[in-house]
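P.,

For your records, the input lines for the assembly:
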Amino acid sequence: MPISESKPCKTGSACADSKMTGLSTPHDFDSLVQADRVHGSLYTDETVFQRELEKIWYRSWVYVGHVSEVPKPHDFAMKSIGPQAVIMTRDQAGEVHLLLNRCPHRGNEVCVEARGSRASFTCPYHGWTFNNNGSLRGFSFPDGYAGVERRELGLGRVARMSIYRGFVFGSFAVAGLTLEESLGGACAAIDRLVETSPEGEIEITAGFLGHRTKANWKFVVENETDGYHPQFVHASIFSVAKSGIGDLYGDQSRAVARDLGHGHTENDLRPEFRRLNTPLGWFGTTAARLPDYTARMQGAYGADKARQIMIDGTPHIMIFPNLFIAEIQIFVIQPLAVDHTIQHVTALQFKGAPDLNRRLRQQTMGSVGPAGLLLADDSAMYERTQRGVHSRNPEWNYLGRGKHRERRDDAGYLIGDATDEVTSRGIWRHYRELMATP
Amino acid sequence: MNGAFDWVLLREVEQFLYHEARLQDDHEYAAWEALWTADGVYWIPANDDDIDPDHQMSIVYDNRSRIALRIKQLCTGKRLAQTPRSRLRRVMSNIVILEHGEAEIKVTANALIFESNRREDLVWATRTEYLLRREPAGFRMARKKVMLVNNDKPLPSLSFLI
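Structure tokens returned:
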């Protein structure tokens, strides 16, 4: 079919296609995001990306960092919300702040270090100095500012900051759902994650790998809980490494794909791990090989509960829009442009579990980041899909897998089989709601 | 440099590094793997050149068995990040012998690597430290530490042998 020929309208009543040409026409997200398909322009249209920044990244709760990255007073770490830099600081009193890296005088960056310890930040341009809680400590040559109210000239900050179990989130919206309301069913997954530590806490202390990909951020988000791709994209490593991952995402797997609402989705692998019924089987090892960890877990939770935690393993959950907890590591997704995304990834570290942590770092370094035996291949798929969706026929990506067997679990969440696209559909349902908001 | 400089040793080292570079450029995976000692460590630090690899994330920190796994994966022909393979040419220079004893030689070298893949054409710049060991068949790599100039920034996929 010649490229110029228009595609026949298949939607019946209202043909959406006419609305998709021309950037001056407002986007109709109810037409662009349908029950089992999404329009390719959502990954390529610059004006859609700009709207996403306004309606999603600068409005929703977005994961910024973890309290363990700024363990002591005066520590800071450079983080981000979308393309905006955010300085996560801990002040003298121990409070965490999310500050913006923009001097309120002429807009210069006040911090160019990735992390460190500072009681104050001095703008190198004209010497204004800010406390690490964001307040203006002083101007240079202050007699030039007679009558000026210092309180109004502090560093900008993310409007709301909230911490759940050490995970620090920020929202640029001054009002809206609380973090807990927004996390909803994802709270239970985080609760479960921290219980993998005998002290009930995780730590982010191993430093991040930054992996850039020339693809839209939503390809990354969708892939994280796409249980259909591992057998294909990762066939090369599954065929040579002893890994149980492949079987978890086979068509015989009892694992469940779940839409937790608010755009959060997970691959619940517990049914498979419970079938295996081996403590630490989720991590490809045994209690005998990590005796110190096993003893500490038993001491902390009692033998029965420790055994259950160690059988169930950690969650595989994509917390919309940017925190992917992937059993042994976390990815923080940062969109920079419509076709440019960075994944910041590091090993999860469980407080009080040094022997487990060592293995977590080794496994993470092998599998993810730019040279990862898994992630370099995912990234190749992101980049190829980004190029692919520029083709105009078909205009849609089809996300109908398992729609006929979608069902509700006891908690009322939509679930599907391990390889079903119930997760992608859930992500897009939430996306459509956010993007259609005036 | 004290006393008589060992030009023959430098030439030997250079030839080894050029050979290793060519095997990488040409995706001669098995021949490249054979250049490692049994205890070889292949290390590409992230975020700085001198991090503690036992506690901080590196881009690559492979012991000998993981080097073997990396090569096995490439040899499947289904490593999607290398299907099709990157086209590569690298220039090695600034080769300096830092230390040498009877059995082991520590060498530093710079490289500029041009990679052409399906995404883009790009240049990687590195300084690499090698610990070479004399074995009956010639030099073997006991350690290779590749310090990317831009290892403090997010990087695109690095799926070829660097």
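Two observations worth noting. The mean pLDDT of chain B is 96. Strands of chain B lie at 36-45, 58-62, 87-100, 104-116, 121-135, 138-148.

Regards
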